[in-house]
Amino acid sequence: MDDTNKRDMIPDSILRNPQSAIPNSKLSNPQSEIRNSKFSARYDQKLEFILRTASKIFAEKGYHPTTMRDISRATGVSLAGLYHYCDSKEELLFLIQNNCFGRVLERLEERLQETENAVDRLRVFIENHLSFFAANMAEMKVLSHEGESLGGEKHHHVANKKREYTKRVREILYELQQSSEGKPKIDLTVATYALFGMLNWIYNWYDPKGSLKVNELAQNVTRLFLGGFLSADAAVEISAKALQQTENISVWGAGHPKRDDRRS
Hints:
3% strand; globular; 3-stranded antiparallel β-sheet
């Protein structure tokens, strides 16, 4: 294999198979993984160190302002050394996002095999998501803020994994909804993204080293999502009239009904 072909290989070092790599030409196919003995354990450990460090810099500084020289200084790896492990800064971002979505989904599927109970399966998802990202807060922030920073095949590949993860959670919520006959149905799209919104916001306020442990956080979120903030006895029905009176208020006030719209 010549140097050009070698640079066409994207090492996927810390996904399901630490010896695997994904060719650029097959990024759109999540199953297109091949074994390659050149990616040794030592190689993978160094690449993982680079990716973890890059995640922290991207989270603190932002992806676009960060340069390869920033990553070189932080890792102590020369620029030439960095380009031995990846072709570009974008490839680093791809590997971070691809690894995170791949790993969290893999862990979820493994744990879902432990139970068939609908409520327990939701609890497993919440615990899995929170525990994974509480241990990888920088990566979580990068996923939240840099979701659209990739382009082309790399973006397509990560977007497919993201859709796969979202679809799996929607299925869990559907199963739970079907097992709760007689109760008002919540739109599954609203429920799915509302749940992700609750979970993905934790990097702004949660301290994994604080007094609130991850398992306690997961228990609270699960109870909040299933039962709401108020107890069942104190639940408040939203009337159709209240919904009809919802205002659409612009921050600029241009459409305010009481505004005296005068031309200067």
